[in-house]
Amino acid sequence: MELYNQSTKMEYLDTLASPDVQTLLRSVFEKSKNTEILYDKDLHSFSLGQIEEVIRNINPATLNSVSNTKSRINTYLIWAINNGRRENNINPLAGTTKEWERKFIDNVSQRYLSETDMFDLTEMLLNAQDQALIQCIFEGISGQAMSELISMNYHRINWNDNEVTVKDVKTNNFRTVKVSNRCIKFIENAYRQQVFTAEDTENEKQLAEFEGSVFKNTVWKNTRNHKVSRGNLAKRLYIIKDKYEMDSLTVNTISESGRIKMAADLYRERGKLGKQEFTEIGDRFNINKMTVNGYSYYDTAKMKNYIDSENLKEMYNLDVEF
């Protein structure tokens, strides 16, 4: 997607060293475009009220995401002021408080998380174990009863090509999933993590090594099984959900959020979301198939309950008609 005043924004993006940060800022610019067209001026020249419109259009899922969105816009404003791109040297975001940020959070819990929301969530977690847990689910690794996560083993990962081989207890078969650089970094850090800091109490517990497993159980006085269980992983997810007041954060909603993200990527690449695209999403996320008269297929109608025009527009600013 071409950005409003693209040459200026690309000049700014080129000053950012991290590709991840460039992607996050570009996402902000993509979502600010319609408001910039409406007011016929660049984001760097916006008033506070106009910036508020942009943040509402971005629709951050958590207070932390609001803070990060504000920070990203703020860095662009500072760059524009320092480089003479803004008409005056007044930064409208200067002096805004946490109370100002709170007004952008809907009292109704947001069910799905965009790629930016997921980035912000994983960045604030205390443990690589939890970062890897959430990012892996978002990128398609879970399995029945989290069995793919439990089976993840250091020795079945191609670290050079980001390929992770996991096993689902439902089929008892292995499959290989190619993950992002960000995900593989979390996985490696999770494997190397030795001490787990509880998100709720910040108490530290030793992590048990178990035959090369990436996800590990914590060691307590009464710990009998060093192998991590579904219950261990589910409890960690529940604590994150409770601490950060994300009522809709579950394995299913994280996975469905990832499917929406993949649909957005495929639509940007191909300009369509048809049977082939939904099949690729189903394959990656290991979704259960329906079988009728010996023919197996993914229930695309069910997938379209969340991969729909509204979510693609709200989360990724894409106009998609089904």
Automatic annotation (TrEMBL):
SUPFAM superfamilies tied to this protein: DNA breaking-rejoining enzymes
Keywords: DNA recombination
BP-aspect Gene Ontology terms: DNA integration; DNA recombination
Cross-referenced InterPro entries: DNA_brk_join_enz (IPR011010), Integrase-like_cat_sf (IPR013762), MrpR_C_cat (IPR055008), MrpR_N_CB (IPR055009)
A Pfam family annotated for this UniProt entry: MrpR_N_CB
Gene Ontology molecular functions: DNA binding
Organism domain of life: Bacteria
Domain MrpR N-terminal core-binding, first and last residues per copy: 3-81
Span of domain MrpR C-terminal catalytic: 114-317
Keyword Phosphoprotein carried by entry: no
UniProt-recorded name of the protein: Integrase
